[in-house]
Write a structure and sequence with these properties.
The protein is an alpha/beta fold and 685 residues long. Helix content is 31%, strand content 19%. The protein is built from 24 helices and 28 strands. Strand 1 and strand 2 form a beta hairpin. Helix 3 packs across helix 21 and helix 8 packs antiparallel against helix 11. The longest helix is centred in the first third of the chain and has 19 residues.
């Protein structure tokens, strides 16, 4: 029963990309309760453990309250005017001394579309394309791979449409744990008779529901998918009509598949050839098949190839552009899709305009009232850290990101951050990265500001302001506007509200042209593309043509390439990483939530009984995990869910990314978090 004195306001969960809704209860300026919002079109009243604990961080005692300046080994409180003045002055001095590319900016998938748009705009009017965000670390290869094959780097069908699928192929995603509310729609499909196939190195909660589990070796995805396509084409199960009328590149793929032997695929992947044939036939012959993936596919040096191969699989079978079909990359943060859409990437402007496109770049420059914009792609997240360590980058401005936990090869990240002339961190808590900053700026969190957020299914929703920020904390958009004005761009940042910022986004991003605060404040928002204010949105993409210039789906062949690291005598095991249901991203919020932390309090490594016995390790032992980049201590969990030779660690705690590889996909520049050669032994410290 809702209490009469509480004001109940529809809100959006700030955690993963599913975009669940709930009712936030506000009483005398504080968030005091939540209720389930059964009318929400995706979550229908459901929330995962993180969503149920979402209020715990809002009024947390650790919140940043005032601007801080480094003095020696600590910080002193300063005024906003002093902080903004000194930061602006130093940014301009660095640009003058070293050029605009000595500056870099990290936007945030935790922040609104409007705030990410402002951050990339500020970077570019200052003269650099070195602006990026965590999509580079999670789904950059999805954006690159789908843009190349289908012309749109986004989920093709809504999450809810999964219920219409007859066959669901999940690869590199443990959605039952990582996207539990999305998993409910898969459950509904299974109740109607759908066939679920899961390819994953681990036996996860998602696998528990599967009709068929392919326990492949980490990093062997292209080999598996090519093996599936070999079976499909050889058996004549490909959709010849769809291929002829709606695709290009099939003959090149056919030639590649002639070189693929299932016996070799079995050797590479560890998956029996008959299982590969079975999953291929199920996928090809179903009336409506959908592919679901997450970072198990994307976080590889072959991440773009992995995504293109999945697109090829859908294209040759015609499982696109219809209900129950399509490609569903599940995003991990609340606005990672939107941050990409509005240009918070180093190689594209808003609307995915390449920075190298002279005419379209000129048009955006004119709308921003600047003479020109930089024409060459900037540094990506990992490249920023490399440049900082080598002395090529002098200033980094970080909004809501925590690279000291989330980036690979953290010891190298620390070297880069320590080497900067200026590090500014704008956040809600004193994160591991903020502890290294020259200036720390207190930001408002999701409930303390308004703006639009775009979920994994391209659904744009509106988050209203529920309560006031604590202390002197300000919304990120207000801070960036003031920084823009103080660095010489008063006219470009004379924006008085998130609504005004969204109105500017409408003019530079065609897919968002019809998206207004009024329209998306309606429950459930709108799914882009929405080209005008009379348009209802577009739940299913590619119904008649693809988003490429010629309107065809471009089948783009890829051969198997091994990971950057493979096991050897010194490092005989494969380390892979992933999420837990109780934690989120770098853990800066969930590790401050007692209900969640009490159930999952510390870093652990999952190891098979065979590998544990060989090393004299028992369940609960303190162990040391080491790679070529460093080592970390954690608790061993001896489990039957990982194969011999493979170990698993969650990435929400400090320690995991000391170990991970910063080898990059050459196209998407995403690091290979999912495969690192490692060793484990008992720790006696």
């Amino acid at each position: 029963m809702k209490q009469a004195d509480i004001n109940w306001v529809p809100s959006i969960c700030p955690f993963c990309g599913v975009g669940c809704g709930f009712l936030a209860g506000v009483d005398r300026g504080r968030l005091v309760a939540l209720e389930y919002l059964t009318e929400h079109p995706v979550s229908e009243g459901a929330l995962c453990p993180k969503g149920n604990a979402v209020l715990d961080t809002v009024h947390h005692a650790d919140r940043l309250l005032h601007p801080l300046k480094r003095v020696g080994e600590g910080f002193e409180r300063i005024s906003w005017d002093q902080a903004l003045h000194e930061i602006a002055e130093q940014i301009l001095q660095i640009r003058e001394a070293h050029g605009p590319n000595a500056l870099a900016f990290l936007a945030s998938a935790k922040c609104s579309n409007e705030e990410n748009y402002l951050m990339q705009k500020w970077a570019r009017v200052l003269g650099t394309n070195s602006v990026d965000h965590c999509a580079r670390l999670c789904h950059a290869s999805t954006v690159a791979g789908l843009a190349k094959t289908l012309g749109a780097g986004a989920m093709t069908n809504p999450v809810t449409d999964t219920v219409n699928a007859d066959c669901i192929f999940v690869i590199g995603s443990n959605f039952a744990e990582c996207h539990p509310v999305a998993a409910r729609w898969v459950g509904d499909a299974l109740e109607q008779g759908a066939f679920l196939m899961v390819a994953d190195p681990r036996v996860t909660p998602t696998v528990w529901h599967a009709d068929l589990h392919l326990q492949l070796r980490p990093g062997s995805d292209v080999a598996l998918i090519n093996g599936m396509m070999k079976v499909i084409v050889q058996a004549g199960l490909h959709n010849k009509k769809f291929i002829a009328s709606r695709t290009s590149g099939f003959e090149q793929l056919r030639e590649l598949l002639k070189t693929v032997e299932l016996s070799e695929v079995e050797e590479i992947t560890g998956v029996p050839a008959d299982a590969i044939e079975e999953v291929a036939r199920h996928y090809a012959t179903a009336q409506a098949s959908v592919i679901v993936w997450s970072m198990g596919i994307t976080q590889h040096i072959t991440g773009t190839d992995n995504v293109m191969s999945l697109a090829n699989l859908a294209l040759i079978t015609g499982h696109l552009g219809r209900p129950g079909t399509g490609l569903m990359p599940l995003r991990g943060q609340s606005n990672v899709q939107g941050a990409c859409d509005v240009g918070a990437l180093s190689n594209v402007l808003p609307g995915y305009v390449p920075v190298t496109d002279f005419e379209r770049r000129r048009q955006i420059a004119a709308k921003w009232d600047v003479t020109e914009l930089p024409a060459t792609p900037g540094l990506t997240v990992v490249e920023m850290m490399n440049a900082a360590a080598s002395g090529g980058l002098h200033s980094l401005y970080v909004m809501g990101e925590n690279p000291m936990v989330s980036d690979p090869n953290v010891q190298h990240v620390r070297q880069g951050l320590d080497n900067l002339d200026l590090l500014v961190v704008q956040d809600i808590f004193m994160t591991e990265t903020a502890e290294l900053a020259d200036y720390v700026l207190p930001a408002a969190l999701w409930a303390e500001k308004s703006g639009s957020y775009t979920s994994t299914e391209r659904r744009v929703q509106w988050q209203p302001t529920l309560v006031a920020p604590p202390g002197e904390a300000l919304p990120d958009w207000e801070i960036i506007c003031e920084m823009g004005r103080r660095t010489g761009y008063a006219d470009q940042f004379a924006l008085a509200s998130p609504g005004a910022i969204l109105a500017e986004i409408n003019t530079v991003s065609p897919a968002y042209a019809g998206i207004t605060p009024e329209r998306v404040q309606a429950l459930g928002g709108l799914i882009w593309p929405c080209p005008d204010e009379d348009h209802p949105g577009t739940p299913i993409l590619h119904e008649e043509k693809f988003g490429t210039e010629d309107g065809l789906g471009h089948i783009t062949s890829a051969s198997y390439r091994p990971p950057a690291e493979t096991p050897d005598e010194q490092y005989p095991l494969i380390l892979t990483t992933g999420r837990l249901v109780l934690h989120y991203n770098s853990g800066s919020m969930t590790r401050r939530t007692k209900a969640l932390l009490s159930r999952e309090p510390r870093l652990f490594v999952e190891i098979s009984a065979a590998d544990a016995a060989e090393r004299g390790i028992e369940d609960g032992d303190l162990v040391r995990v080491a790679t070529r980049r460093g080592h970390t201590d954690c608790v061993a969990r001896v489990v039957p869910t990982v194969a011999a030779g493979v170990v698993f660690m969650p990435f929400h705690f400090s320690g995991t990314n000391i170990l991970t590889s910063d080898a990059l996909d050459p196209t998407a520049k995403i690091p290979e978090y999912k495969v690192a050669a490692c060793q484990i032994h008992k720790s006696f410290q």
